[in-house]
């Protein structure tokens, strides 16, 4: 299996090379050259299997022998051993056709653990084999950072720098990052927005000299291996609810478009995905795009669901690549127009094609609070401000011919206690392993919104192998 760039200029890579590279050298994102496809029989056979077995079957064709099966199985078992629910990704019915998949039972209480626990171990395995070290620089709007830090802490082959927008992540989110004081972890609070953080990370990747000097790699969802790991839970949900013999829809609270792209990928691989609902908060660039076919940038505004406070969704580029018939130069032209003019338009026929699968829905903060309260009263479930957007979006948008829709619950309510309490009157409790989070010591550096200073910091701390 070879991986190609969405901008069509970079060399095709093997799995291990794409894993370590993160962003392609032409600025694009890696995708498999061809989607592996499962037969109906193979999909049917996943039903009732343990979660880790489904992961193994789903990722095996992507890894394509680069890691021997036995080692891959061990990596997968180990990645999910720390989850605190025996089902790993339990599924619950909310009403008639609406289900919720709880993706927040990992070590940092957000769905990012699904991908990052595996990513950290995949890196470690490949780097040890090659005798190499890497520097990871990542931007986080909240949850990626803690999940990445948790996955990479104390690993000898890795130094990790995580940038978060100063004052724009919740206290639980910040503390989950900054109370990890391992020698190989540096937390940076940047005086800027999440998009500024993400732009700096991209700029570091585009500086080939810097990139080579520190052996830069990525944990943001631009890394293909993250998307790959997430595809597994869509298969798990699908077969639990009757796939391949019954179609299924998914509703996904969306920021960087990684999670919903994994659902799309599951569809390309043979799962009968008949509807995808993209949920957003008031930062609704994606909702407006699906409604109109025109992508227009607005400033980012803080909301109750900070992990979705994004205007430029990196992984959208992967969908765009397919929408533009896998023409890398067309992708590049569209994204350049977007960067320069803040806008690009999809041709009407292509827009219509997207709408056969995708719908989108937005909730502002007030609606988010009232939905948390509503579902608490109706079902006894406490949803966090991200997950509730998926549930409300599913109820609003599910099509008549979709027999079951699964909403991705991406964070534990205790990660966002203020909003949840304001809405429901109940303060969700942190699970036991985090009960002392507010007593732990924090370590982080506040920095100007300045790329040169950031690079200097990373260079000054470089260790030799
Ligand atoms: C990261 C995150 C999202 C957005 O996921 P994307 O893959 O970036 O679209 C939604 N909810 C929570 C809780 C998150 O941490």
TrEMBL record:
Domain (Tryptophan synthase beta chain-like PALP) spans 92-331
Recorded GO terms, molecular function? threonine synthase activity
Describe which pathway this protein belongs to, using the record's wording. Answer: Amino-acid biosynthesis; L-threonine biosynthesis; L-threonine from L-aspartate: step 5/5
Name the CDD domains on file. Thr-synth_2
Which EC number(s) are documented for this chain?
4.2.3.1
* InterPro entries reported for this sequence: Ser/Thr_deHydtase_PyrdxlP-BS, Thr_synth_N, Thr_synth_N_sf, Thr_synthase-like, Threonine_Synthase, TrpB-like_PALP, TrpB-like_PALP_sf
User: Which Pfam families would you find in this protein's record?
Assistant: PALP (PF00291), THR4_C (PF24857), Thr_synth_N (PF14821)
Q: Which cofactor does it need?
A: pyridoxal 5'-phosphate
Q: What class of enzyme is it?
A: lyase
| SUPFAM superfamilies named in the record | Tryptophan synthase beta subunit-like PLP-dependent enzymes
Signal peptide (UniProt feature, chain positions): none
What are the UniProt keywords, alphabetically? Amino-acid biosynthesis, Lyase, Pyridoxal phosphate, Threonine biosynthesis
Query: Can you state which reaction this protein catalyses?
Result: O-phospho-L-homoserine + H2O = L-threonine + phosphate
Under the heading NCBIfam families, the entry gives: thrC
Q: Which family does it belong to?
A: Belongs to the threonine synthase family.
Protein name as it appears in the record: Threonine synthase
Q: Which gene encodes it?
A: thrC
């Amino acid at each position: 299996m070879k991986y190609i760039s969405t901008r069509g200029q970079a060399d095709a890579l093997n799995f291990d090379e794409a894993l370590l590279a993160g962003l392609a050298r032409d600025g694009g994102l890696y995708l498999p050259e061809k989607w592996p496809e499962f037969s109906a029989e193979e999909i049917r056979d996943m039903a009732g299997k343990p979660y880790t077995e489904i992961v193994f079957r789903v990722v095996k064709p992507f890894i394509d022998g680069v890691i021997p099966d036995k080692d891959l199985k061990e990596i997968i078992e180990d990645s999910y051993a720390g989850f605190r629910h025996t089902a790993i990704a339990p599924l619950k019915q909310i009403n008639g056709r609406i289900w919720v998949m709880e993706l927040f039972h990992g070590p940092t209480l957000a769905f990012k653990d699904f991908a990052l626990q595996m990513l950290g171990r995949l890196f470690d395995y490949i780097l040890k084999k090659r005798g190499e070290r890497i520097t990871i620089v990542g931007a986080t709007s909240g949850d990626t950072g803690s999940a990445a830090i948790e996955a990479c802490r104390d690993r000898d082959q890795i130094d990790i720098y995580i940038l978060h927008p100063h004052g724009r992540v919740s206290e639980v989110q910040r503390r989950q990052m900054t109370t990890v004081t391992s020698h190989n972890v540096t937390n940076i609070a940047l005086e800027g927005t999440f998009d500024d953080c993400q732009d700096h990370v991209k700029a570091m990747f585009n500086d080939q000299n810097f990139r080579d000097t520190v052996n830069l790699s990525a944990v943001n969802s631009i890394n293909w291996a993250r998307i790959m790991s997430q595809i597994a839970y869509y298969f798990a949900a699908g077969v639990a609810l009757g796939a391949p013999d019954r179609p299924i829809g998914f509703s996904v609270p969306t920021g960087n478009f990684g999670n919903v792209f994994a659902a799309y990928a599951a569809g390309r691989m043979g799962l009968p995905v008949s509807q995808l609902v993209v949920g957003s908060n008031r930062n609704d660039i994606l909702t407006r795009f699906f409604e109109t076919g025109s992508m227009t940038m607005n400033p980012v505004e803080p909301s109750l669901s900070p992990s979705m406070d994004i205007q430029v969704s990196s992984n959208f580029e992967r969908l765009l690549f397919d929408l533009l018939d896998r023409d890398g130069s067309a992708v590049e032209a569209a994204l350049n127009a977007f960067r320069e003019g803040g806008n690009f338009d999809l041709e009407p026929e292509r827009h219509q094609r997207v709408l056969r699968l995708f719908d989108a829905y937005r909730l502002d903060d007030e609606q988010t609070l009232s939905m948390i309260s509503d579902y608490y009263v109706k079902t006894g479930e406490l949803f966090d401000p991200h997950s509730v957007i998926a549930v409300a979006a599913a109820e609003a948008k599910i099509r008549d011919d979709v027999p079951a829709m699964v909403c991705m619950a991406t964070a534990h309510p205790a990660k966002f206690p203020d909003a949840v309490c304001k809405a429901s009157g109940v303060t969700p409790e942190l699970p036991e392993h985090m009960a002392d989070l507010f007593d732990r010591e924090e370590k982080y550096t506040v920095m100007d919104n300045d790329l040169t200073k950031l690079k200097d910091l990373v260079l000054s701390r470089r260790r030799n192998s």
